[in-house]
Amino acid sequence: MARQHARTLWYDRPKYVFMEFCVEDSTDVHVLIEDHRIVFSCKNADGVELYNEIEFYAKVNSKDSQDKRSGRSITCFVRKWKEKVAWPRLTKEDIKPVWLSVDFDNWRDWEGDEEVELAQVEHYAELLKKVSTKRPPPGMDDLDFTTTVVSCRPAELQTEGSNGKKDVLSGFHVVLEDTLLFPEGGGQPDDHGTINDISVLRVTRRGAQADHFTQTPLAPGTKVQVRVDWERRFDHMQQHSGQHLITAVADQLFGWKTTSWELGRVRSVIELDSPSVTAEQVAAIEQSVNEKIRARLPVNVRELSLDDPEVEQVRGRGLPDDHVGPVRVVTIESVDANMCCGTHVSNLSDLQVIKILGIEKGKKNKTNLAFLAGNRVLKWMERSHGSEKALTTLLKCGAEDHVEAVKKLQNSTKLLQKNNLNLLRDLAVHVAHSLRSSPDWGGVVTLHRKEGDSEFMNIIVNEIGSEETLLFLTVGDEKGAGLFLLAGPTEAVETLGPRVAEVLEGKGAGKKGRFQGKATRMSRRAEVQALLQDYISTQSAEE
């Protein structure tokens, strides 16, 4: 089979040219970076040989260039020989091969806006230098890396079971030399992932260390591969960066401070230091944050020493008592700078969109603002659209008429319920007269109906008006759950009521000759009837 070209993306930076050969599950990878060209070859998952040779637009420093392989691509970081000189194209010749494209998601016009971009690349270049003696440099989208187990000790983890009760899992707290799994903190839940394909169920911070809870032990000194659950991580990145943006805009527009926030499973909530927020103010915040998302503002992460004067100028709610090391500052360009330990997107465009769901009354003159960011908005729209389609089918009308159609149904239902209640009352009166005139009247009288409610049973008792006969009424499923009412002489009802509830495995209460409640075992009505008959017989014998 003839060799093919690998699809290649590239983008330009002041000091580096970044190239990505897009090949999933590659094998036999070879990368040769020379001062004037790069030669790349590999095989893809189907065994097809791929080969790319590129003559560079300008000379590069091959000795200070790197490449990194992941399961999805091979990325090259090529150091320019002449820094701060923009490359209009990657190739020496002014041609555009069909397999070569500009990576517009990462492309920025850094000329004329050099300070911010240069700071980013300087930071990344330093990172390359630090890790060059240990392992290939990590990419911005690394999902796994190799490290060493430092310690492993028995531990327990409390989880919420399916029935809402707390379950306790036995396992181990594993400490690694380094980790890419975020421990819960700062309002953000922890990352999930694997260590050597062993599931990490919880990551918590203990001082400067992270405890990874697993149900399988890992021996100290073992080299392990850590992989992050990217879907969960990216979701948390979107929500956390979204919170920073909303917080900053709410402060800028209305002077409201954020006093706390929670990244929930379905939605996130920001607590604002304001007793009230109007719908117009919510709309203004939502419009402003989405304008900034469309402006593609970069998000930068810096580390400052604790005694750096700049620390006093950034927003934050203070550092944990056990904090050690530098202070991490997350900056949204021209919008916000905030002390934060969480994970964030690198550009506001990665948020896609923010939707503010509404406001709720908070505690102590606070207002809670609920929101969704990024993929959560898309999922919410998908659910809403699914509900809308289902309602359109059920109501036989377009979405714009759903509300009116439901109002009509509600009015019709109320009318039917009223008519049904009147009929049920008439039926109860008729049943009461039938029971009273029955030849079996006296002693113990029982009645069960599948349809009915407590009012139905009480109307029967009111119509009969006898305090000499024990009346045992039930409604509901003959063998399942339902309602019961025992009426008769006050002393007898007080004695027998709790015993009836016990036999029916239910609960109830009573006063003035009536005991009523809910039952779970209507199939035991015969036992109740026998209990009542025994009581009447005993009372008659004593008289």
TrEMBL record:
<keyword id="KW-0648">Protein biosynthesis</keyword>
<dbReference type="Pfam" id="PF07973">
    <property type="entry name" value="tRNA_SAD"/>
</dbReference>
<dbReference type="GO" id="GO:0005737">
    <property type="term" value="C:cytoplasm"/>
</dbReference>
<dbReference type="GO" id="GO:0004813">
    <property type="term" value="F:alanine-tRNA ligase activity"/>
</dbReference>
<dbReference type="GO" id="GO:0005524">
    <property type="term" value="F:ATP binding"/>
</dbReference>
<dbReference type="InterPro" id="IPR009000">
    <property type="entry name" value="Transl_B-barrel_sf"/>
</dbReference>
<keyword id="KW-0963">Cytoplasm</keyword>
<feature type="domain" description="CS">
    <location>
        <begin position="3"/>
        <end position="91"/>
    </location>
</feature>
<dbReference type="GO" id="GO:0006419">
    <property type="term" value="P:alanyl-tRNA aminoacylation"/>
</dbReference>
<feature type="domain" description="Alanyl-transfer RNA synthetases family profile">
    <location>
        <begin position="174"/>
        <end position="383"/>
    </location>
</feature>
<dbReference type="InterPro" id="IPR007052">
    <property type="entry name" value="CS_dom"/>
</dbReference>
<dbReference type="InterPro" id="IPR012947">
    <property type="entry name" value="tRNA_SAD"/>
</dbReference>
<keyword id="KW-0597">Phosphoprotein</keyword>
<keyword id="KW-0479">Metal-binding</keyword>
<comment type="similarity">
    <text>Belongs to the p23/wos2 family.</text>
</comment>
<dbReference type="GO" id="GO:0003676">
    <property type="term" value="F:nucleic acid binding"/>
</dbReference>
<keyword id="KW-0862">Zinc</keyword>
<dbReference type="InterPro" id="IPR008978">
    <property type="entry name" value="HSP20-like_chaperone"/>
</dbReference>
<dbReference type="InterPro" id="IPR051335">
    <property type="entry name" value="Alanyl-tRNA_Editing_Enzymes"/>
</dbReference>
<protein>
    <recommendedName>
        <fullName>Alanyl-tRNA editing protein Aarsd1</fullName>
    </recommendedName>
</protein>
<dbReference type="InterPro" id="IPR018165">
    <property type="entry name" value="Ala-tRNA-synth_IIc_core"/>
</dbReference>
<dbReference type="GO" id="GO:0002196">
    <property type="term" value="F:Ser-tRNA(Ala) deacylase activity"/>
</dbReference>
<comment type="similarity">
    <text>Belongs to the class-II aminoacyl-tRNA synthetase family. Alax-L subfamily.</text>
</comment>
<dbReference type="GO" id="GO:0046872">
    <property type="term" value="F:metal ion binding"/>
</dbReference>
<dbReference type="InterPro" id="IPR018163">
    <property type="entry name" value="Thr/Ala-tRNA-synth_IIc_edit"/>
</dbReference>
